[in-house]
Amino acid sequence: MNNDASWERRTFVALNYFLMALVALACLLPIVNVLAISLSSSAAVGSGQVKLWPVGFNLKSYEFVLGKPEFGRAFTVSLLRVAVGVPVNMLLTILVAYPLSKERKDFRFRGPYAWYFVVTILFSGGLIPWYMTIKMTGIVDTFWALILPGAVPVMNVILLLNFFKSLPDEIEEAGLMDGAGRWQALWRIAVPLSAPAIATLTLFCIVNHWNSWFEGLILMNRPEHYPLQSYLQTVIVNRDMSLLSAADVAKWSLISDRTSRAAQVIVALLPVLLVYPFLQKYFAEGIVMGSVKG
Amino acid sequence: MKRQRVSTILLSLALVSALAACSGNNGNKADHQASGSASASAGSAGSAGSATASGEEAAPADPLGKYDPPIEVSAVRPISEGTKFGEGESIDDNVWSRAYADQLGIKINYLWTTPAAQYDQKLNIAIASNDLPDIMSVNAAQLKRLVDDGQVMDLSAVYDQYGSELTKKLLGEDGGNALKSGTFDGKLYGFPKMSSGLGQADVLWVRTDWLTKLGLSEPKTMDDVQKIAEAFVKQDPDGNGKPDTYGLGATKDIFGFFGALEGFFNGYHAYPNIWVKTDDGKLAYGSVQPETKAALQKLQEMYKGGLIDKEFGTKDATKVKDAANAGKLGLFYGYFWNAGWLLDGKKTDAAMDWKPISLPSVDAEPAQAQVPFAISTYYVVKKDAKHPEAAVKLLNFDLEKLWGKSAEPEVYNADKSGNAVFEYALLYGEAPRKNLDAYLNVVKALEANDPAALNAEEKSYYDKIVSYRGGDVNFWDSEKMYGPEGSLAVIEGYAKDGAHTDDAFYGAPTQGMTDNNATLGKLQLEAFTRIMMGGSIDEFDQFVSQWNSLGGKAITDEVNAWQASQ
Fold first, then answer.
1. Domain locations in chain B?
2. Chain A CB within 8 Å of residue B196 CB
3. Planar angle of CA A255, A256, A260, nearest 5 degrees
4. Do A128 and B33 touch (CB under 8 A)?
5. Pick from A48, A122, A245: which is nearest to B322 by CB?
6. What are A202-255's pLDDT values in tens digits?
7. Cβ atoms of residues A95 and A191 within 8 Å
8. Which chain B residues are Cβ-neighbours of A219 within 8 angstroms?
9. Which option is the CATH number for B7-194+378-424: 3.40.50.720, 3.50.50.60, 3.40.190.10, 3.40.30.10?
10. Residues 6+ apart with CB under 8 A from A277
11. What's the gap in Å between the CA of B54 and the closest CA on chain A?
12. For position B286, what pLDDT does the model report?
C-alpha cells in the first residue's frame, strides 16, 4: 500500500466512477423526464418537445390529479395498507424467524418447520388455485385481501433468521441465565440487537405493499377499492389496441393526458422517496450482515 | 459447518425465487392457465349454419315486457376509462340502471367491475374458476372457450322469441356475418356487440401546407407517394435548413391504427393480416401472398433511400404521433380519427394543415382498403342462468333507447353536462354506419346552415365544426373527420364505390389460431421488419414456407373448411 496510487489504480477508479455515474444517470433520467412532462403543457408534450426540462411550465396536472377523487381514494387505501400491512408483516416475520434461528437441540422440529416455509418459495399453487383459496375464505373485495394472503413474507423470514443466527449466542445465554424467558429474550435482546435488519426489512415491506398492484386488480371487485398502484396501472399501462372496438379507439383518441399521468406517477413516488433516506443507512448493513455469518 | 451449508442453500434459494417472482408477476399466468383449460375437441371449424336449430316455435313474447315481480340478474363488466358519473351516481345507480328497474323490472347486480384494460385478465380468472355471472361480455377466444367447455347457454330460442325488430335489424345489418360469428353448430351463443369495420380502414394523411410549399400535388399513385416522401425528406419542408424530417411514417408494429402500413400494402393490392378470396374461390391469408412481397420490396427500397425513419423499428404509434405534431412528419397512413391525435400539432403551429386522402394505387386498378372483421365483443349468458331472456330484453331496451324510434339521446346517450351516459348501459352496439351517417347528415346541415334534423351526437359535431370555422382551433379535428373534406368522406367513398376488401373469415378463432397465432404473428413481424430494413427479399419466400409449416397451413385448411360449411 502506498499513498501515491499508481496510474493503473487511478484509471481504474476514474473509470469506475464514470461507469457508476452512467448507471446512476440511467436510473435517474427517466424520472427526471417524467417530472418534466408532469410540469409541462400538454401541447408541448403531445408534440414531443419535452426532454429533461419542462416546456410551458404549469401545475395544472397536479391540480387535476390532487382534485381527482379516484386518486385520493386509492392513495388512502394504499396508506392504510402500509399502516396495517407492514406491522402485520414484521410481527409475523419476527415470530417465525426467531425459533427457526435456533439450533436443533433447542428446537427439535426446526428442519420440518423450515421446509414448511421454504416450500412456498419453491412452489406456488398457481394463480387460479390461489384466487380460489382466497375467494373461499371470503375476504375477496375486502381490505384484508390486501393484507392476509401475503402476511408472512418468507424471503424476509430467511433474511432475518440469518441475522438472528449471527448474533453472539453468549448474550442471549447470559439473559436466559439471569432468568429471562424465551419471550423476553426475543423482545429484549434479539430484536433490539437486530435493529439494522429489522429496519431494512421494514423498508422492504413498505415498498412491497406500496408497489404491488396485481392483488388489488384480481382480488378487488370494484375500482373504488383499488390501492394506488392498481389504480395507476389502469391509468398508465399501454392499452392493447387490438382488443378495443373502433368506437373505443376513437374515444381514446380524444384523450391527451400524458401530463396528468406523469403527475400521478410523481405523486405516487413521493411517500417512498420520503421514507427511504431515513432507513437507507441501515440498508446495506442489514442485508450484508445477515448473509456472511455462517 | 452444517449450519453454514444450510444457510448457503437457503440464501441461494432465496435468490432464485426472487428471480422467479420477477418473471412471474406480470399476469401472463392468467392467460396461460386459462387457455390450457380450453378443450381441444370442439367442432371448431364446424357447421355454423344460418338456420337456427331451435325447433319449438314459441309465441312471440313482448320484447320489452316488464317483469312483475322484478327479477335480479348478476353481471360483470368493464368500465371504460374516463367514464364519469353524475353527482351521487354510480354504476349501480344511474339513469340506465333506474330505467332497467322501472321499465323492465330488472335489477342488475354487478359481481365485479374493472377498468376496461384489466377486464380480460379478470374475466379469464373467473372463467377458469367457473365463477361466472348471468350476463357478461367476452372476446372471440373467450366465447369459443366458454362454448367448448359448456359454460354458456344456447340463446337461439330466446333470441327468436324475444328479440325486437330493431335488435334483429341492427344485429343483421352487416348481412348476418356478425350473428354467424357468434353461432356454433347452428346454435347462437353470443350476441355480437355491433360496430363498424370501415372505421378501421386506412386513409392517407398528408400535410397539404408542405405540398403547397414544395409545389407538389396530392398523391394519386404509389409513385406519387414515394415522390412526396422523398421531397419531404430532401427538400426541407419545414424550412429550418436541417435535414430533420421523415418521409413516410411507420411504427415498430408495422400494422396498426396510426402510422400503420396496411394502406400502403393495399396500394399494391396486398391485404396482410386478413383472409381474402383467391381466384379459385378458396380463402388465403393475405400476408403470404405475392402482392405482399411486392409491397415489402418497395418499402425496403424506400427505407434504403432514407424515406422511412431509420429507427422505425423502435417507435410505437405515440412516438410517430409526436414526430407529426413536432412538424417532422407529413405523410402517414392511419384511421379516420387520427385527426384527434394531430390536434396538439395544429395548436402549436397554426400553419400546419392535414388532409385525409383515399388510398393511392400502384396501377390503374383502384386500391381497395382492407377492413377487418368488426365484431370483437360478444354478450353471453351463463349456462344455468334463470332468466336468459332478460339478456335479450336488456339488449332490446338498450338499442331501442339509443337508436330506436323512442330514442332519447339527451337522456340515454349524453347528458347535459356531457357525460357519456351510454357507457352505463350493460349491453351496447351501434349501427355499423353510424359515423358515416353522421358525416353525411352533418355535411348536409352545414350546407343548409340548419342543424334541426341532427340527433344530439351529430349536433355536437356540427357545433364543433361551426366554432372551428369561427376561429376556434380546438375543434379543428372535427372538421377533419366530419367535415366535407374529412376522413369520413374518404371512407364513405370506399363504401360507395365498393373500394374495400373485407376480412373473409369471421368465424370463431379456430384451434390452430388459438395454438399458433402468437407464434405466427411474431414470425411475420420479424420477417417483415428484417426485409424492410434491408434483408434479402428472398426471405419472404422463406417466411411463407415457415409460416405454412408452423401451423399456417393447418389454419388455412381450417378456414377453408369453415368457408365450405357456410
1. 7-194+378-424, 200-371+503-565
2. yes
3. 110
4. yes
5. A48
6. 988 998 898 888 888 889 888 888 898 888 877 766 554 444 444 555 544 444
7. no
8. none
9. 3.40.190.10
10. none
11. 31
12. 95
